[in-house]
Design goal:
homodimer; alpha/beta; Rossmann fold; six-stranded mixed beta sheet; 12 helices; 12 strands; 42% helix; 17% strand; DNA-binding
Chain lengths: 340, 340
DNA sequence: AGAGTCTTCCAAAGCGCTTTGGCTTTTTTG
DNA sequence: CAAAAAAGCCAAAGCGCTTTGGAAGACTCT
């Protein structure tokens, strides 16, 4: 059932039917009702390909998915997706994932924009001066960055959490508890979030005249194993830290295991605070010692990004507004005063 | 730059240019070369909307993403996606995720098929007599099921792992080690994979004249917390099992924690085997006691599903061939003879 | 009543591609 | 060498929708 048939069936022109369906004013209310009615009764659904060809709108938002045999998609992604999907559903938006070589995402961005495959895109895990952001900005497609880039001569729209503030608070708490040697087990420090977190820790330390030892900060892929290794290294060397801030709950699993393997305990020997993106399947309160966390739901962020993308597509949101969400510091059993 | 312009520029008809580009035989090789050349030089890229309108082909594969505030996307999904995306990239396929109310995915499948939004779809986490499979089968779009459904009067194409065999082997090993009371901490038993796993365990037990106690099997969402709770319950009641088979590494984290909380140890008091989908961020050999697993890379499955979808789209694969992959049983420290 | 204004609808022209059905040339064949 | 076949190209008809530019009729106003 296409427009033509429907129009013929109603003894109306395609024009009128199309307008009636799309809510244009120049059509009699009575007629509109008839059209709407017939459309519903016959299950008419406009062909999106045709509509797209005519209007250029696709009803889809795009994401370039870095892939490759050695590339692991972040497990956070799925939570983000939950939120994004949940919002997108309510607005009849689909999400198209365009796989790309992790080292050359620009080509794919170019393609999906040139092809008009999507109405908007989002970018995640940005780095400082991220080329994707610069590219997409010049390409002129609506976009939102989840996270922040830095060092551009233009502004852009983003939704980020206050990573620096969160880790500043976390470190400040540890310092107040008497800790003097902190360590940071961070994610990939080429990404902005990790840089911000490190900055937060350093700022807190500096405020008390302390510093983050060179060997007390490490930047690794956020796996359990890396958390373990980093912790072993930190605690087995001289000058071992008495408190650790850790960028993910998954790494924290490794931290806990390492501490235990060394015959130490949390929080008696080592205090631990980790960042919690709020996974349904792994909760900080369920760690053997309930974990103190900086908490921010990545799922909510997904929903928010979708909301803003939808708003931009329909022209309701404009400009380069960035928003930074505060992060909760949730104190649980894994922190205590520094050992004597 | 569109076809018309390109054709005009080459002093050829659109027909010829289109044919030259799409590899049709009725065009002079010399001409083809000229066309190809000019197309590349001017960066001509056919407009996918137009092509789609004309051919009906979209170059996209579809997946209906169950969403909802209370719906958690399985963390396995992201690994599957890694594999799928990796293959899709090499074949210039995009993946479109259509979010749907988790309780009504059929409507969305109908939509994406009716709209010709995708060339093929895949279905994951199927249940017995899964309505999505039945629907998609009648809709006539190429599809692959990741996992298996059951109880249809038609055959369909699927890629699944031998869940029953895997858990049969696991249980058999435990029995050979002298265990008599096994427990199974399973995933959602409305899904086929869970049913098959339970069947595997029961079959192994039956072969030795044993049974799976009613209270020794539980079916829960695969979270750490649920693994913990299930284990507490199992071990605190009378008739506690001496060995546990567990459907996921994430739940196994909870199992380990529960065992430790109860002052017991693995494998001295409880043997444990879990299923490992091969996450890069959580590896069984890194558990405090290295975990015995039934192992099958879900990422490989994703790549395989993509491969088969691509083959079906281009007509290279037909028929309802199902394939079942064997599963490795990897024995590590978490199993031992039954306690006396 | 005639001129101007709305209201309501329509025919037709795209959007950019593929594909059908021919129409010339050139090559092969008996 | 004429007839048949093959090769190479093209004009034009879709695909199904939106949108432009009217046009007919109903209504208002002087």
């Amino acid at each position: 059932m296409n427009l033509k048939q429907l129009a013929h069936m109603l003894a109306l022109s395609q024009t009128t039917v199309s307008r009636a369906l799309n809510g244009y004013p120049e059509v009699n209310e009575e007629t509109r009702r008839r059209v709407m009615d017939a459309a519903k009764r016959h299950g008419y659904r406009p062909n999106p390909s045709a509509r797209r060809l005519a209007t250029g709108k696709t009803g889809m938002i795009g994401y370039v998915l870095p892939t490759g045999a050695a590339v692991d998609i972040d497990p956070h992604f799925v939570e983000f997706l939950s939120g994004l999907g949940d919002y997108a559903r309510s607005h009849e938006l689909d999400l198209v994932l365009s796989p790309a070589d992790a080292d050359d995402q620009e080509t794919t961005y170019r393609r999906i924009v040139a092809n008009r495959q999507v109405d908007a895109v989002y970018i995640s895990s940005p780095r400082p001066a991220d080329r994707r952001v610069a590219l997409v900005n010049t390409l002129g497609i609506p976009f939102i960055v989840h996270g922040r880039s830095e060092g551009f001569d233009f502004d852009y729209a983003f939704t980020d959490i206050d990573n620096e503030g969160a880790f500043h608070e976390a470190a400040r708490l540890l310092i107040q508890l008497g800790h003097r040697r902190l360590a940071l087990i961070n994610g990939d420090d080429r990404e902005t979030f990790a840089i911000h977190r490190e900055r937060g820790v350093r700022r807190a330390l500096a405020a008390s005249g302390l510093t983050l030892g060179e060997r007390h900060v490490c930047s690794v892929a956020m796996t359990e194993e890396n958390g373990y290794r980093a912790t072993r290294r930190l605690l087995e060397e001289g000058d071992a830290p008495t408190a650790i801030a850790c960028s993910s709950l998954i790494m924290a699993l490794g931290v806990v295991r390492a501490v235990r393997d060394l015959g130490l305990s949390i929080p008696a020997d080592v205090s631990l605070i980790a960042h919690d993106d709020v996974f349904p399947w792994l909760r900080p309160e369920n760690f053997s010692v309930p974990l103190s966390t900086t908490r921010s739901s990545i799922r909510l962020a997904g929903a928010r990004v979708a909301e803003r993308l939808a708003a931009r597509i329909s022209g309701l949101e404009e400009g380069a507004r960035g928003e930074v969400w505060p992060v909760d510091l949730v104190v649980r059993g894994s922190v205590a005063g520094a050992p004597a």
